[in-house]
Amino acid sequence: MSKSRIAIFPGSFDPFTKGHYDIVMRSRLLFDKLIIGLGDNPDKERFFQLKLMQDKIGLIFKDFENVEVRVYNELTATFARSHQAQFLIRGLRNTTDFEYENTISQVNRHIYENLETIFMITSPQYAYISSSIVRELYSFGQSVDKFLPYNLD
Ligand code: ADP
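Above: inputs. Below: predicted complex with adenosine-5'-diphosphate.
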């Protein structure tokens, strides 16, 4: 029997946006299992509570059997290895993302050499959406509903 193909899609998801949703919906078709890894970094203060994001993401994908969400607080590469994930999914919006992701993927492979990073190019309608822009708008009282695949309240 061939080995099942497991991928992780890691991120801070502070908050999880329609851009992230699009990457999950496209990449879930390519793998037997897709684990959304919600990074819990105690040194980085979050804007949106981790538990809130975990619940929202869990609800959105509850009917998709091969998608699950897990919180982790270790290196992404060791998290991937402990879940036998052979693939790491990242989204690319522009050359700034590329420069950053290129470095990270080399380092990840150094830690876990069988980890293959797969880049998904953003869908044009979501290319301008970022968690930081959503945080900024939200903190100034603007509605951010149209950037998110769920309601905040
Ligand atoms: P991190 O803090 O690890 O960079 P983010 O939550 O900001 O995590 O993003 C997780 C992944 O989603 C990254 O690969 C990022 O490039 C990608 N991403 C973020 N927004 C979009 C978008 N609008 N379209 C495609 N990919 C995106």
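The first helix runs from residue 18 to 27.
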